[in-house]
Design goal:
Distance between the termini: 72 Å
Radius of gyration: 15 Å
CATH superfamily of the domain at 11-74: Beta-grasp domain
CATH class of the domain at 11-74: Alpha Beta
Helix content: 25-40%
Strand order of the largest sheet: 2-1-5-3-4
Structural class: alpha+beta
Strand content: 25-35%
Length: about 90
């Protein structure tokens, strides 16, 4: 009789901050998200879209900033990082 030991999937907690235009859509400006340990910015965006459908299109247009640096969707996320989603400002 064999028994397989299953370890819990590792995860990372990241802090999400939404700029004013996005935070108004869901009534929150910051919160924590628990993501799989191999999560990328793209994975975070997908979780947000599933959890908050009103963010789907605007989040895709947002600038993604991790720990103060603008990053692309393939950027891996690590424990404790701060991810900000900011809508570009338009002006003239």
């Amino acid at each position: 009789m064999s028994s397989e030991l299953r370890l819990p999937e590792e995860s990372v907690d990241v802090q999400v901050r939404l700029g004013a235009g996005l935070s108004r859509l869901i009534g929150r400006s910051q919160f924590a998200l628990d993501l799989p340990s191999d999560a990328t910015v793209e994975d975070l965006l997908e979780v947000l879209e599933d959890s908050y459908p009103s963010l789907a299109a605007p989040a895709r247009r947002a600038l993604t900033v991790v720990n103060g640096s603008q990053v692309g969707p393939g950027r891996p996320l690590t424990e404790g990082e701060q991810v900000s989603l900011l809508l570009p400002a338009a002006g003239g």
